[in-house]
Write a structure and sequence with these properties.
homodimer, about 425 residues, alpha/beta, Rossmann fold, Dihydrodipicolinate Reductase, domain 2, Alpha-Beta Plaits, 3 domains, 14 helices, about 35% helix, elongated, sodium (chains A, B)
């Protein structure tokens, strides 16, 4: 066994970073045995010194991240700062100085993964980022290694714990969105500014990363259709319940039936209570992967939090250190398939549409005609009268999203339709 | 990209082997892109020629497996024969001739993993075996790579599809064991001789492999306590149902609370219907992994079958080929922790005990005294009288298995106890 330690620079010492530092210290012997050489924390870059970080060696703290990654003796840089800059510049500098990088930065990977992969490859180093998607749940490695001999057709799941916590609260307590958000904030599940989570940006970044790996195709954040969940109401949950359903924010990456294009999207969707994802509670994540030979696989676990994310970071750290010792690199970007990413209009999906309509003869015929005119076939329809109005619930068969949304627009223009709501359905 | 192909020898061409051959042919371009060089099927060893194998190139078929692995130009040997011999001799010969090995052979790995790992390491080649445990479900790679920076405390799950199919049938249809086994056999879920499955040998081999990887400790098949499921009756299911439970054959690998030893066992267990494993139906597999930092992860999918197993084999094939090209090897055996494997008596577990007792004063006191004398604490007790007899159901708190089984023996010796059944409970 080599005795000269591998040197690790840690960028960021918040919830995840401090946990990484703690485990590297307390489990040093295990890491040494698993890597085949000792690893040493050589420096920790933070934005501000002064704050007490329990269990983190104070003498390693620096505010000069750039100088740290440029030191020249760093083997691996662990980036847990998040955000685009200065993370991007620091990672690039790390590559230039021969360091491999383990990152938990989903936003950066989704935005600029191709360039980062290219830079890593150019300098003969690794870029690993299991922690960027679904915390501790192994997803990146299974997709890019375990299923490397298979053809993935769909990745579908709950990849944002904050919104799942909020939706679960709304479902179980009947609370409205803002009330559930307040609870999530109070319990630390939502940040002070929850936009990235509730508007689906976080899930969309993860969908871009997962789609890219699953389909060997570059998928950028801009390629991902994104709908947040701020407009889901308590009434929507009540209506879903009547249909034996609940509402989840899903990330869905699909290969088209003809195999010639892919799509990636994030939106709330009604799913039957019998669907395994319906029982994913609180801030947990769960992802289905459907592959040609493997069939349907599911991965479930805590999708965020300091310890779970640190577990994923350290798993990557061990792999990257082993590669360093072997003078090799792990699998880099695999984008050879280069399939086009289709826009949302071409996605084949189903809608669940609730309409408030005038309760008089001919209305159902009028509504049904609109569906027919747009070539959208109806799966189930249910009408219930109340005080001169009627509630009409239609679940469609699968059709292109463009046809479905045009149908909804046309329905809204009918003078017999007083209002309505539509949801994606699975 | 290198254009000289990597040469693969396939040992065995049954359900899994023929699917491996088929995918290697139909998805050759994808495999080439993912590996970085073409892979070529150089030979397929079978026991008997003559049988028509659809889609398998006849000119590659040979009955001389030894000559095939000794050819000298083989880069990777894929072993899907199963059983101890000739698989062991062929794998060893492959290593000696510089070939890496991908195996789906759980029996051999559980029996002789340490020696095989040592041989692979000696010759600087890889031994991968994702397919040996739970078919297509990535478990070996997540445990030995994704969680390499974490401390696994428990692996618990359903790892045998045949027995899960039988138990699921018994649960949903009220059928007895032999009736459900007949159905499993007719549908191809059980082999003509189902012993390896129903007596728990298959699950025990997987438990040995999983425990070894999870705890960085050598665990042999003999170290695994094994109880089959042939004695589970329709009455047991009826009784479980009354308690809001079902019965599953579980493989359980645990680190002791003090961290100084590990245990591995396979036995039927009563689990609450609310437990996620209770809803694992038909021949599916599902495994929980509990790690210190990651928390609780679950992996679910098809645990057997030609295509899923081939998916796992091919994922390993890609990894092993990439290692070959890089002149490196992947993680080998990690047994540095070398923790003792405790016998079943020291396992801390719970029992669910049903007793038929005489319905007269003092019986409950007598029974309760037996528990107290053995230091076993009672969680719940339920008594129901019928025709001069009473059914007494006791669920214990957690205690050492030795104390629990001694309690059961002592209860059997009471003259007021006419009969009874006990099950492990979770």
């Amino acid at each position: 066994m080599r005795t000269r330690p591998l040197k690790v620079a840690l960028l960021g010492c918040g919830v995840v970073g401090s946990e990484v530092a703690r485990i590297m210290t307390t489990h040093a012997d295990d890491l040494t045995a698993r890597i085949g050489a000792p690893v040493e924390l050589a420096g920790i870059a933070v934005r501000r010194t002064g704050r007490v970080r329990e269990g983190v060696p104070a003498e390693l703290i620096t505010t000069d991240a750039t100088a740290l990654v440029k030191r020249g003796d760093i083997d691996v840089v662990v980036e847990v700062i998040g955000g685009l800059e200065p993370a991007r510049a620091l990672i690039t500098t790390a590559f230039e100085h021969g360091a491999s990088v383990v990152s938990a930065n989903k936003a950066l990977l989704a935005e600029d993964g191709a360039a980062l992969h290219a830079a890593a490859e150019k300098h003969g180093v690794d870029l690993y980022y299991e922690a960027a998607v679904a915390g501790a749940i192994p997803l990146v490695r299974p997709l890019r290694e375990s299923l490397a001999g298979d053809k993935v057709n769909r990745v579908l799941g709950i990849v944002n714990g904050t919104t799942n916590f909020i939706l679960d609260k709304m479902d179980t307590s009947g609370a409205g969105y803002s009330e559930a958000l307040d609870e999530a904030t109070a319990l630390g599940y939502a940040e002070a500014d929850p936009t990235a989570d509730v508007e689906g940006f976080d899930a969309a970044a993860k969908a871009a990363i997962l789609a890219g790996i699953a389909f060997h195709t570059r998928v950028r954040l801009d390629d991902v259709h994104r709908e947040g969940m701020t407009e889901v109401t308590a009434a929507d949950f009540a209506s879903a319940k009547q249909m034996g359903c609940t509402i989840k924010l899903l990330a869905i990456c699909e290969r088209a039936a003809d195999g010639r294009s892919v799509t990636a999207r994030v939106h709330p969707a009604m799913i039957p209570l019998t669907h395994p994802l319906a029982s994913v509670r609180e801030a947990y994540n769960a992802v289905f992967v459907e592959a040609e030979a493997a069939g349907q696989l599911m991965f479930y676990g805590p999708g965020a939090g300091g310890s779970p994310t640190a577990s994923a970071v350290l798993g990557d750290l061990v792999a990257v250190c082993r590669n360093k010792l072997a003078g090799a690199t792990g699998p880099g970007e695999s984008a050879y398939a280069a399939l086009p990413v289709s826009p949302m209009g071409e996605v084949v999906t189903r809608y669940h549409i609730s309409l408030d309509v005038a309760d008089r003869p001919g209305v159902l015929a009028q509504v049904a005609t609109v569906f027919a005119e747009h070539g959208v076939s109806i799966d189930t329809v249910r009408q219930q009268g109340k005080d001169g109005e009627a509630a009409l619930v239609v679940v469609t068969h699968r059709a292109a999203d463009a046809a479905l949304s045009a149908t909804v627009e046309a329905l809204r223009r009918l003078d017999t339709v007083r209002g309505g709501r539509e949801h994606h359905a699975r």
